[in-house]
Design brief:
about 190 residues; five-stranded parallel sheet; 5 strands; binds flavin mononucleotide
Length: about 190
């Protein structure tokens, strides 16, 4: 099972890398193969052509296409910007489409405050549903992102990995179920 983690914040002083590294380690410890797609590294232009419309795509678009096609599921790591999702995350998702079809999404949200980015989760569910990757019921919320992890994503609270367990188990069930479903054929 291969999970692609998409880290959607690109600010110079971003905190999102901490959440992404943390969840990647939890998924790896669970036994999943993971690839981290960091929107800051790919630095995509604002959407002009979707990948499927590009006549001669740049190498980075081809690389992203291949990574997304090879995934069995996606973990979307989102901040909450004005009760919405970060523009770089939306921009990354908008460039692609069928790469996501019939695969589940797990949402990890975080914020500086106490609500853990919860208000970005619902709009992201609508986006992922439209892209054919329905989000699993449980989302993993991380409050107080600034002080809850070091820069490598190690949590200050030793109980943090065990709190992620239920989310990961549910995600694992959905990736297995949808993989089995894809193997039986898809309607399009
Ligand atoms: C443009 C912007 C809008 C924000 N809006 C919210 C918000 O609506 N709710 C919230 O809890 N935090 C909000 N914050 C604070 C973020 O939770 C905090 O800055 C977090 O670290 C952002 O993720 P990032 O550092 O990975 O970019 C906002 C931050 C920015 C930069």
């Amino acid at each position: 099972m291969k999970t692609v983690i998409i880290l959607g914040s690109v600010r110079t002083e971003r905190q999102g890398h901490k959440a992404a590294y943390f969840i990647q380690k939890c998924l790896n410890d669970f036994g999943m193969e993971t690839v981290l797609v960091d929107c800051k590294i790919y630095n995509l232009p604002m959407l002009d052509f979707m990948y499927k419309e590009m006549k001669d795509p740049e190498q980075k678009f081809k690389d992203l296409h291949d990574i997304f096609v090879s995934a069995d599921g996606f973990i979307l790591v989102t901040a909450e910007y004005n009760h919405g999702i970060p523009p770089a995350l939306k921009n990354m998702l908008d460039h692609f489409q069928s790469e996501f079809f019939f695969k589940p999404a797990g949402i990890v949200s975080y914020s500086e405050g106490y609500f853990g980015g919860a208000r970005a989760v619902e709009p992201l569910r609508s986006v992922s549903a439209e892209l054919g990757m329905p989000a699993i019921p449980i989302a993993y919320h991380i409050p107080k992102i600034k002080t809850s992890f070091d820069d490598e994503g190690n949590p200050t609270d030793p109980a943090a990995p065990s709190r992620a367990e239920r989310f990961i188990k549910e995600f694992d069930w959905y990736i297995r179920a949808m993989k089995a479903g894809r193997e039986g054929g898809t309607p399009y």
